Amino acid sequence: MSEHNLENNLRKDLGLLSALSLVVGMVLGAGAFMKPPAVLEVAGDYNFALLAWIIGGAFSICGGLTLCELGVMFPKTGGMLVYLEKIYGAKVSHLYGWMITVLFAPSLVGALVGYFSSVCCLLFDINDSYRLAVSAGVLGFIACINSIGVKQAGYLQTIATFCKLIPILLLAIFGLWKGNGQVALFSSSGQGIETTAPFAVAILATLFAYDGWAQVASVAGEIRNPSRVLPKAIILGIIFLVIVYACINIALFKIFPVKEMVTLGHDASAVASQRMFGHLGGNLVAVGIMVSILGGINGYIMTLSRTMFSMAERGTIIGARFLSTIDEDSRSPVNAIIVLVFFSFLYSILLDADRLSEISMFAIWVFYLLTFVGVIIARKKYADVPRPYKVIGYPIIPIVAISGAAYVIYGMLIYQTVNGIASICLTLIGLPLYYYYHRKNHNKELSLGEMKKYRVKTQYVIACGTLIFITALIVYGYIIN
Q1: How many whole angstroms separate alpha carbon 161 and alpha carbon 19?
Q2: Which residues, other chains included, contact 163 with Cβ-Cβ below 8 Å and sequence gap of 6+?
Q3: pLDDT digits over 264-287, tens only?
Q4: pTM for the whole thing?
Q5: How many CB atoms sit inside 10 A of residue 44's CB?
Q6: Which residue(s) pair with 223 in the sheet?
Q7: Residue-wise DSSP of 360-414
């Protein structure tokens, strides 16, 4: 099956606002609140910490500008899966899809869900025995919205993005305005802490907070006029994020001395809000973090389920026919959404999602590197393919993106060697599956995937199933409490 045309039945309901919200909503999450102290700790002082955020943003912008060229050349649902297949062949694209399906997607969503339930239980004083019910509830809610249709999921992403900006803007604006002047940027402030970590580690920490921008290309097949919308969404979204992160950091720098901010760690944003707005301010930040994570969960489920769908259409994964089915009412890959939600919940219970996220980040940046290099290869391999958008400043911008990706991979291999090796091994496990299905489907005309009309709307089934499951988890929590 050389071309995967079933995706033409997906609705093209995403415009610039929804696509821009998808970029901002997926990236601007807990990292806005959690990462500043961590970056400051390894950077040593304000100047280097802020420089790390700016360089991390520059790498992301160059990566986004580079990725856009492939996005408008091949505006297919699946994003990088399609680009890698066109440039390097089916084997490399299979490894990427395998890594996304079994490692990156469920571990990342599972980590976000685990953190959401933790903050929710803390804010509303819910006993930890009911945390599983909270996790199931948020996943069921997101799955239900996505099963209604991509337009509704886009609306949720837009609402979540605007709502999360309220506490972030309050923290940035009032911190810059009412901060006690601890910050002394670009001057010899005398403040700082000793650190043995190289500057690469600080940049690496910011890139974790910036990650997510590339996944918007996964829904290119559902974007109206992708040649215009996709570059604008990625470029404007990342520039906005660089400004927001810089403002938040400077605001926190004006409120805390270096040592105090590092000591507070993850609580720095909440403490800063309490100092400015009282106890209510701390609760406001907690709600803002929850909304931020909710937008991240929705964005990742929305985009990564499309990668799983495209992977299934190629027939090189277990349950390919089931995963490549589209619901006729919503025109969404509901089965892929359900499977992603299920395994995300399972990962959040059984596995160390934070460590899995670190492993998956190494793997995703390896494929980012291949994709950035692929832009240069595509200039020769697909010289005749129309390019409504070309990388600005070619080849300088792609080279910067490639250098940034190589820098990240180097940093992870040096300072997280075990995670890097584990990531490579888990990704390469997909090769035996590829060869098995390649031999099985050799010389066969695949007809995977179908438009299926269900007797009961899938959103009703998901909603009812979620309520029953939450009730069971609440009863279980009550018993063990």
Answers
A1: 11
A2: 288, 291
A3: 776 777 778 777 777 777 777 778
A4: 0.77
A5: 20
A6: 14
A7: HHHHHHHHHHHHHHHHHHHHHHTTTS--SS--TTTTHHHHHHHHHHHHHHHHHHH
